[in-house]
Amino acid sequence: MAADIRKSKPLPDRQDIDNGQFWRGTDSGQLQVKQCGPCERYHWPPRLGCPYCGSGDVKWVAVNPKGEIFSWTVVHRSQTPGFEADVPYSVALVELKDAKGVRMVGNLVNCGPDALKAGLAVEAVFTPSADRSVNLVNWQPVAGAAG
Amino acid sequence: MDNEMRELRDRACIVGIGQTDYSKASGRSVQMLALQAARAAIADAGLKPGDIDAILPYVLGPTSDEMAAQLGISDLRYSSIIKMGGATFVACLETASLLIHNKIARNVLVFCARNGRSGTRVTGRVNTIPGQSFRRDFESPYGFSVPGQWYAMIARRHMIEFGTTREDAGHFALAMRKHANLNPNAMMRDVKISMDDYMNSKPVFDPFHLLDCCLETDGSGAFIVAAADRAIDMPHKPIYISGAAQAKPACSDDLCNRPDMFEIGLTKAAPRAFAMAGMKPSDMDGAMIYDCFSYVALLELEEAGFCPRGEVCDFVKDGHIELGGALPINTHGGLLSEAHIAGINHVIEAVVQLRGDGGARQIPKAEHIAVTGWGDLGDGALAVLRS
Hints:
The complex is a heterodimer of chains A (147) and B (387). Chain A is mostly beta strands and 147 residues long. Chain A contains 2 helices and 8 strands, in the order H-H-E-E-E-E-E-E-E-E. Chain B has a single domain, classed as Peroxisomal Thiolase, Chain A, domain 1 (3-Layer(aba) Sandwich), CATH 3.40.47.10. Chain B is built from 13 helices and 11 strands. The interface between A and B is large, with 44 and 39 residues.
């Protein structure tokens, strides 16, 4: 049993008092980021103060779950527990289309490594974790964008 | 403020260096490794262990308490951890200069010891990286959890924006190996590589392949900093800390979301350190560039001002960065081919070169050498050392 536990993929802590709201959103297919009241800039990952103006008036807001590939890596040698059988797998950095300045990390799905390119239009895919405790956010090419 | 830093120029010197052998299995504890390197550095400076009155340890490994107790230091006046990952030891040159100039300490010991291959490997060290809840919740669940993967995002973006190729990074990796082949203490002293070997090495975190990645090492390094007016009476030629500065990138708790992904700590630290020294990158006779990954070193060369952003591909070609070239880099072989002692070995090599003790790998007439550090999610530091 111990060996099985070691092999499971790491999961987010959906009870985290600061980050947990993100996972309550993904439960219903919503993508949320933080936005600053005074300067109105979006930011990510979700901090308790705005990294651009320092205001503590930052709120979770739902945003359009679409973006484009900014950068990526293809992992051939896993360093994360549970990912050994997935190699090679792609981790993409996706810049959101409407929440300017936000880039999210996620796995590329329905997209071979050869189709990866900067600027490729992608959309969020809400993927249940293996134990179904949380919806992770992965990314797939928008229909017609690949190739 | 940068002008005020000039007060610190040449006030402190590196007066002693020490290192152990570098291996995959030291057969010793990190405590023992640290003590061996520290004792060697103290002896090299012509001091006794009890003369040390300040210690700047690494975030991981033996503490200043453990070192002081085992070196018979009964009055440790100052100790603190400069937490900048691989930029720590270059940043320590700034801190040590401050301690010396303000007469808080007389003899500062800086050291790093690790069983980085046989003991705690990289996956065991990432819990010191900033923004742990972001790493846990928004990165690790996607199999994105170690420095090489973060840095691969910058490298890929550099390829996208500037057309940097694997072969460009290969020039850097090959130069490191050539230099290591001249260094009897380098882990890769007997292993040669060709561009074909480099291009065909296995992908790890593409675009990083195996020969883009640093070694994992068991070993230790240490150095001693003392006041310039005392250093002239010590056994070796004093090596002056002419300039030194550290800096954090914007949002140093997350690497992926900076508006300008290439603006790192070094982008800000380098001009401050050069201004403190009253020098510029082109004045350097050599450089020790923190090379945890080949592409990271390329980025640092641009951001430290050795060449304009986007032009590093030409800079590293044609032997320019090799011994005999215009700017020999990492004459010890660097983290890629000498050893990974978190960059303290870069500081030590700069001292070896400035003393003229480089033997087969000596840079002729080496008078000024820049040393860089890179750590965690883009922290940076640069020092200008002179003989």
